[in-house]
Structures are given as C-alpha cells and as structure tokens.
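Q: Could you fold this chain for me?
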Amino acid sequence: MLNLADAPVSEPTESSAARFDNLFQRFYAELFGLAYRILDDRMETEDTLQEAFLKLSDEAVLQARPDPEVGAWLRRVAMNLAFNRLRSARRARARLERVGRLEHHDQEPVDSDLLGPAGQLVRQEEREAVRRALGEVPERQRECLLLRHSGYSYAEIAVTLGIALGSVGVLLARAEHAFRTTYRRQTHV
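A: Sure. Below is the predicted structure, expressed as structure tokens.
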C-alpha cells in the first residue's frame, strides 16, 4: 500500500475541485473496466466506483500526489470495495438459500441478446466457472491476475499491490498456475 508519509507532496497547481474532476476523468474508465471484471454487474460497478471516488474526495493530501500514485491508490480501493461487495452478495445469497427463498435473475449484457438461449447459458456457465476458480486463487495472486488481464503494466501492478517490481512476474506465474489447476479441476477438463 502507498505510504503517503514517506513521499514528498508537490504543491497543487489547480484547485482541489478541479484536481478531483481531472482525476475522475483520467481514471474512471479504466477503474470501471477493472471493477466490472470482478463484479460483472454494471450497477454494482458504478456504485463501487462512486464509493471509491468519494473516499478520494476526502483525501486532499492524496489528491496532491502524482497521478500514478493516485491511480495505484484508486485501483487498490476499487478492488477492495469490489471484493467486499462480492463477499456481501455471497453471504446474502447463502442466507436466502438456507431459508429457501432465492429467486435468481441474472442480467446479461446487451450483446448477449445476439446469442441464442443456449449460447447465453453456455456463456453464463463459463463466467461462473471462471469466477469460482478465481475465488479459490489466493487473494494476492487473484489481484495480480485481475490487474494484468485488465491491461495494467508490471510497474502499475507493483505500485498498486505494494510489492517489488521483480515480484510481479513470479506472483503472476503462480496465479496463472493456481487458476488453471483450479479451473481444470472444477470443469474436469
């Protein structure tokens, strides 16, 4: 995690409102892609990002930091919030299942309407299998894998996860191996 006390703070060159707006414009789209990969739900993703940027709005010192540091902090916060939402949703679903009142209505992305019902079912089953396998990968490795497959560089992953740049490749290789092993076991491939 970023240690803000150790790094020098640059003098802000713009008002805090303008700085926040610029940070929002710069990072929203990429954070949306990352959070959506975790949550697979547009509304949940938007709620998660709203919460992340709300946290950023309370961090005037952080907003004065260089963009790469703010971006790393936002990625970490967005990932943590997204995983928290998944855990909460899982617990709520489990409670409902225990009392026998679960009514499950998945919302498919618009482009899935182009698939037939069988194609939609296969696609949904594949996504669920990937999510189950990811859920069994150790947290640090899962985060590394999600960041890399969201298009982040090794340097950005290292800053976001607070690890040495040289450790990213090792962590990623372990994550890919753990995911493949789990996925194959679960799907009997």
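A (continued): Helices lie at 16-39, 42-57, 60-63, 67-98, 117-136, 139-149, 154-161, 165-187.
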